[in-house]
Amino acid sequence: MAGSGNDRVPTPSFNPWTAAYEYAVDAWQRGVLYADVLRQRGNQYHEHMAKRAPNVLSMEFELVLDGRELPRPVNYGLLRIKPPADVETDPIKRPFLVVDPRAGHGPGIGGFKPESEIGVAVRAGHPCYFATFLPQPMPEQTVEDVMMAEAHFLEKIIALHPDAEGKPVVVANCQAGWQIMMTAAIRPELFGPIIVAGAPLSYWAGWRGMNPMRYSGGLLGGSWLTAMTSDLGNGKFDGAWLVQNFENLNPANTLWSKQYNLYSKVDTEADRYLSFEKWWGGHVFLNGPEIQYIVDNLFVGNRLSTAGLVTSDGIRIDLRNIQSPIVVFCSKGDNITPPPQALGWIPDLYQNEAEVLAHGQTIVYAVHESIGHLGIFVSGSVARKEHQEFTSNIDMIDVLPPGIYEAEIVDKTPDTPNADLAFGNYVLSFEQRKLDDVRAIVDRKEEDDRRFAAVARISDINLGMYRSFMQPWLRAMVTPQSAEWSQRLHPLRLPYELISDRNPMIAPIAKVAEQVRENRQEVSSANPFLMAQEMFSNWVETSLNIWQEMRDSADERTFMSVYGSPLVQDLAGLGAKSGPPRKHPGVSPEHRRFMEERASELRSLVQEGGLRVAAIRMLLYVSGAEGGLDERSFALIRKMRAESDNAMTLQEFKDVTRDQALILTLDSDAAIQAMPRLLENSPAAAIRGTLRNMKHVLEAAEPLSPAARESLAEMERIFETAERRALKREQGNVTKLPEPSAPIMTLVEAAASVPAKKAVPHPEAAKSAAAELEAKAPAKRAAKVATKTAAKTDTKTDTKTAPKTAAKTATRTATKAADKTAAKPATTAATKAATKAATSSATKTAAPAKRAAKPAARQPAKVKSA
To answer: What top-level branch of life does the organism fall under (predicted)?
Structure first.
């Protein structure tokens, strides 16, 4: 009955047979489409690897320099990225060079998407370049050869952009990060700011229970297995083995999640899957000596972060030599390069903040909370945030004073002060940090270092035994053909080889897949069998994750037990030495001498400069009290530079900023006391305008802290006092500021500068003095003759001339001073003191000449002094 309230909306009855049929059709169709995507992947692989220079760049490019034509040939090349039609390149902006990792995969991941490291720089108007590489290395190619090639690339870029305001910015990912850092350590003059993303630099570092990959070298017995793999490849190492290591880190993703994600979303996921697999499956090769150098010296030996590497030319690779700012970008979600490995080199090289300043190094680090290893340089969200902020503020990074900073990026909100001064949707700031802050992230343990040191020793032993007893036999059995087949049958490469149209059993899938797409019948998301499928997938993934945790835990316990054993460490030779297994690299005498000279030079600059220097010193003084810098403040400075007719160049501004920062570090009190001297000759209006502008710069960001506010008030008092003095000076009613520290004078100069009272001599005393002088006139004339005779005699001996000249000059100065003070010989105590001091000084100065000269030559000096 209508309106009775007993009506019920009929619910569709559940028919399990219908649901099962719909699910079965959908599952079969998904299976066909999934197989077809794998077939396309195989075809794509063969097509990609058949190219002369395969890469996955999404932008047009042209070859600028071929590394195979360099004096030390390498398989690298320099490409220039062509900007899109709607983007204009600014020739004044510094160029960017992006270097991709050669760690098993092919090149191009840094420009894989429009929203990438290269894409961000291109859109900002920077000239952009890309360092690519070929799948096969050049014969006899080494790590040092690649470093030299990268230096050649930078020289070429600098030559192509003579008007650029700054050296090239180098962005290096993963393996390319440590290689670029090594290049910058031996050729620091070529580099602008360096951004290393997900790059391991301290290989023993890591968090217990979270970073098991660092234990692989010890569990495999060292680097002998690397040598054997290269020998099986006839002198070449297959990069697929490196990719296999990455795959093993996350078995749930490798064995199930990645493939299931494609299967469950095959209608929409195919394009994204194929584009990524194009890069992931493009395995490349390394020469045997290349990979052996990397494993022995970096992965197992960990010699880079303690300046333990020396080139074949005898140059020590010390990261402290890098003069450009270094930006380290890492993530807590990265299981390949965790933050301890990305940042561990800082406490490895430096014992305190003073050493960082002494080497003039600027280090900026940013730690992401969750992004994975590939996401650091592939993720679009990371490109829109971190890479966008670093690129838009690269000039600010370049002029940061030496020290350690943490980059903090926050969202821009309607409440953000001066939000228009911040580029994009975020606000970037650099907060000063201590070395202890970095140590807290790295969490280094000395007992773990001893374990890894034992691994390094045992690795050398095992490698030596392999080379002596196994390598000759293995090399004799390996042929080029056997090496090629071992590479083609690699577990990661085999699916690409087999599942393609080259396999006659796979080719028919294409027609079946086409029919399926024409008659696609997707199952409802509410289908119970589909829901059961999702539950089963989650169970498989969870099970694999549990197995991974058990495996990693067992690996860690095994490593800690074996290499923590005192017996093993004694057998490795560690028991004979006390103290930490890795010593601090120390500082060379040449660097200490350089720093002493540099400190002396900086102290001489405390009172040098003018209004601009005073303004920069003020900014650094107040921002130092604030504890950080903000991009909004630098945006104002950049705006002022653009509006000024005689603005400093960026390099001049950087040099002055660094000098003033070090001056404040050396002696902040003296630097502040010298501020009036810097402002002394400036017009009042200029002083007033500079103070106003600097206050705007300092207050452009968040409100100042109490300490910074106090420092700003101190600067205001200094500037306002200088302005008042300038006004009086302009009105002609002020005396010049006294010299804060007069140079040290000799006794003669001090005596001659003493102001004497003008005395009126008594008439009788004047007559007596005149008579006395007249009586001594013949003696004076005789003395002059004797002096000339002695001078002629002394000219024959150079060692006698200088002392005599000094004696005559000093005596003459004292005589003139005495003649000015009074008309008779003894008028005031000051004159007597001056004459006595002059006589004593002249006598001591001329002592060597007196001993060598004849009595006739000594007499005039006495007469004249009297």
So the answer is: Bacteria
3-state secondary structure of 430: strand
Q: DSSP letters along 816-859, please?
A: HHHHHH-SSS-S-HHHHHHHHHHHHHHHHHTHHHHHHS-HHHHH
Is 833 among the domain residues?
no
Answer whether 424's CB lies under 8 Å from 389's CB: yes
Under the banding of pLDDT at 50, 70 and 90, the label for residue 733 is: low
Which structural domain range is residue 136 located in? 61-208+311-444
E strands, 343-395, where?
A: 362-368
Q: If you count DSSP H runs as helices and E runs as strands, how many of each does the chain have, helices first?
A: 40, 15
Cβ(377)–Cβ(236) below 8 Å? no
Same domain membership, residue 724 and residue 622: yes
Q: Specify whether the CB–CB gap between 259 and 280 falls below 8 A.
A: no
Residues 6+ apart with CB under 8 A from 533: 23, 27, 264
Residues 170 and 313: beta-carbon distance below 8 Å: no
**Backbone phi and psi for residue 197, each to the nearest 5 degrees, phi listed first:** -115, 120
| Entry pTM | 0.81
pLDDT at res. 742: 37
Burial class (CB in 10 A: 0-12, 13-18, 19+), 731: exposed
- Non-local (6+) Cβ contacts of 731 within 8 A are none
Q: Report the distance separating Cα 566 and Cα 571, nearest Å.
A: 9
Last-in-domain residue among 556, 579, 602: 579
Per DSSP bridges, beta strands 285-287 and 309-310 are unpaired
Whole-number pLDDT of residue 550: 97
Instruction: Assess if residue 567 is contained within a domain.
Output: yes
pLDDT in tens, 691-716: 999 998 988 887 888 999 999 999 99
Q: 489 vs 160, 256, 442, CA distance in Å?
A: 45, 22, 40
- DSSP string covering 175-211: HHHHHHHHHHHH-GGG-S-EEEES----TT---TTT-
- CB-facing half-sphere around the CA of 528: CA atoms within 13 A: 7
Question: What φ, ψ does residue 225 adopt, rounded to 5°?
Answer: -70, -30
Residue 68 has pLDDT above 80, yes or no: yes
Judging by beta carbons within 10 Å of its beta carbon (0-12, 13-18, 19+), is residue 638 exposed, middle or buried? middle
